[in-house]
Specification:
The chain has a 5-stranded mixed beta sheet with strand order 5-6-1-7-8. Strands 9-12-10-11 form a 4-stranded antiparallel beta sheet. It has 3 domains: 166 residues, Reverse transcriptase/Diguanylate cyclase domain (Alpha-Beta Plaits, 2-Layer Sandwich), CATH 3.30.70.270; 53 residues, DNA polymerase, domain 1, CATH 1.10.150.20; 143 residues, DNA polymerase, Y-family, little finger domain (Dna Ligase, domain 1). By secondary structure, the protein is an alpha+beta fold. A hairpin with a 2-residue loop joins strand 5 and strand 6. The protein is globular and about 65 Å long. Helix content is 38%, strand content 21%. It contains 15 helices and 12 strands.
């Protein structure tokens, strides 16, 4: 653990900050980025809005109650992904070992970069200065002997902070911090640990590991290591990461729907989104998953169907989703729908042998080319033409910076 030097860089209020830089009239004001759906939630709030208690995931009505003067801005994913891609490219100037953790944060292993740039703090300050100069954005950086602690450190001083956890300071710094501060400890795990009397990171490190193993299985050892600030996981650049294992999209509907024809429109839209991504990555999948969440928000159902042959054509995914839907007796109006393609297989693109299938493939390729160039659903199915706004408008957690489209 003492041999590595890891940086974790986390952009501050990224979506909101990008919007404020793009529109000077928003600077210094409480804003919140939202999706385009009428029933969306707060995606990111500016620090001016956070002072009033506005938080990510908060309902719009609640945000307005907390901050009546809040300005709502519909998010622009193209703007965020392009900015993020350029920032991650900057990181490669300091080390080839850059692991994208999400659209606004990344790990850098700078262990072997110190001979060129000197102290890790210098690398952090150089990156912060370049990002500020190029984009007008701030970020917080954590420096530590491993990824777990670097992530923890970057959260300690926001916005625009720099925190260093040195190897000989680990136990002293983390001992009294709450366990929820550790990356990987969600609210459910926190509740389970609290029932064992574990409330701080120090408590977790001191708790008998054999009891953790009996309670949580193999995860118990990992939890014990986390409590001691130990993490051996390497920084894995995109070129070395495992191939994708699933492709999926979901969307919260503008209104609760009960009619089959309305549900089918959304399924077709989702099928096209999943199919396009599958074709872009050169994969096909044999298993289609359908997820339905009901109007009460809490009730849901998920089913899947495994096919004889792998597919990536949108209409094939759509047909499979309909087959699954027909096995479900809907108990309530539907609030959210999701489709996922798994059991993926990478394949070399080639035109089908039979003329009808060849024409279909050429048509799909032409649609993809236009939509890649001019934006999602520029060319789409006739039944979706009257849909006001298409797409989930949510950036996938698995997003990776493989370039941005020009418009």
């Amino acid at each position: 653990m003492n041999d590595r030097i890891i940086l974790h860089l986390d952009m501050n209020a990224f979506f909101a900050s990008v919007e404020q830089q793009a529109n000077p009239a928003l600077r210094g004001k409480p804003i919140a980025v939202i999706g385009s759906s009428g029933r969306t939630v707060i995606t990111t709030a500016s620090y001016e809005a956070r002072k009033f208690g506005v938080k990510t995931g908060m309902a719009i009505w609640e945000a307005k109650r907390q901050c009546p003067q809040i300005i709502l801005v519909v998010g622009d994913n193209h703007k965020y992904t392009c900015t993020s891609t350029r920032i991650f490219s900057m990181m490669l100037d300091y080390t080839p070992l850059v692991e994208v953790f999400s659209i606004d944060e990344a790990f850098l292993d700078v262990t072997h970069s110190l001979k060129i740039f000197g102290a890790p703090e210098r690398i952090a300050y150089l990156l912060k200065a370049r990002i500020k100069q190029s984009f007008g954005l701030t970020c917080s950086v954590g420096i530590a002997p491993n990824k777990l602690l670097a992530k923890l450190a970057s959260d300690m001083k926001k916005p625009d902070g720099l925190t260093i956890i040195r190897p000989d300071e680990v136990s002293q710094i983390i001992d009294q911090l709450p366990i929820k501060d550790l990356c990987g400890i969600g609210s459910r795990m926190e509740r389970h640990l609290n029932l064992l009397g574990i409330r701080t990171i120090g408590d977790l490190g001191r708790f008998p590991v054999d009891i953790l193993k009996r309670k949580f299985g193999v995860t118990g050892q990992h939890l014990h290591d986390m409590g001691l600030g130990m993490d051996d996981s390497p920084v894995v650049p995109a070129s070395d990461q495992d191939k994708i294992k699933s492709i999926g999209h979901s969307m919260t509907l503008r209104r609760d729907v009960s009619l089959r024809q309305d549900i089918l429109k959304y399924l077709l839209q989702l099928s096209e989104m999943v199919g396009r991504r599958a074709r872009r990555y050169g994969v096909s999948g044999k298993t289609v998953h359908l997820y339905v969440r009901y109007a009460d928000f809490y009730s849901s159902i998920g089913k899947q169907q495994t096919l004889a042959n792998p597919i990536n054509q949108s209409d094939d995914i759509y047909k499979a989703a309909i087959d699954i839907l027909d096995t479900i007796e809907l108990q309530q109006p539907v609030r959210l729908l999701g489709i996922r393609l798994t059991s993926l297989k990478y394949q070399v693109a080639q035109l089908p042998l039979f003329p009808q299938e060849r024409r279909k493939a050429l048509m799909v390729n032409a649609m993809d080319a236009v939509n890649n160039r001019y934006g999602d659903f520029t060319v789409t199915f006739a039944s979706l033409m009257d849909t006001e706004k298409k797409g989930s408008h949510v950036i996938s957690p698995a997003w990776r910076p493989d370039g941005c489209q020009r418009r």
